[in-house]
């Protein structure tokens, strides 16, 4: 038997679009919720990272919620590259999440209009999907942290 925990692997956006066509609405809502939650955490993390980077570079910025001056005083200048890399990686993941949310929006609009499936031109395939997709899990824990485009099937 196959389930989400046994089929954890990163997927590209085209595969994501193909998979969501076969998922029930409840599963789409769960995926949307997980993506939005992840995006909130990434946004919050990037606010902190931006403040840390500004502190190291000697720039003045207002302290975002959750970052106090004592915490900023502990920021080590040797971590600048780490903070910058982390910020950039978070931005990549955020863009990928936005792309997935757009795919979910498009799929939901096709379903509301009564279309059988989204146009296949974007996926480059005219084949119809007759089989059900495996359970889908977009939780990025336990995955490859070096793969910023990680949403798991």
Automatic annotation (TrEMBL):
Polar residues bias (residue ranges): 138-153
Where is the sequence biased in composition, kind Low complexity? 115-133
InterPro entries tied to this protein: TMA17
Q: Which GO terms describe its biological process?
A: proteasome regulatory particle assembly
The protein's matches in PANTHER family, at most eight in alphabetical order, are given as: TRANSLATION MACHINERY-ASSOCIATED PROTEIN 17
List the protein's name: KLTH0F09416p
Chain segments carrying region Disordered: 109-153
Give GO terms: molecular function aspect only: protein-macromolecule adaptor activity
């Amino acid at each position: 038997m196959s389930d989400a925990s046994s089929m954890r692997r990163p997927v590209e956006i085209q595969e994501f679009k193909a998979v969501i066509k076969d998922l029930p609405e409840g599963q789409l809502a769960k995926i949307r919720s997980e993506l939005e939650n992840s995006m909130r955490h990434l946004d919050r993390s990037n606010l902190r990272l931006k403040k840390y980077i500004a502190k190291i570079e000697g720039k003045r910025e207002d302290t975002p919620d959750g970052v106090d001056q004592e915490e900023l005083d502990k920021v080590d200048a040797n971590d600048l590259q780490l903070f910058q890399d982390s910020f950039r990686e978070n931005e990549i993941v955020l863009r990928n999440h936005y792309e997935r949310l757009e795919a979910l929006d498009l799929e939901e609009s096709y379903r509301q209009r009564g279309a059988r499936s989204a146009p296949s031109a974007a996926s480059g395939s005219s084949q119809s999907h007759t089989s059900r997709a495996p359970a889908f899990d977009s939780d990025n824990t336990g995955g490859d942290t070096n793969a910023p485009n990680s949403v798991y099937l």
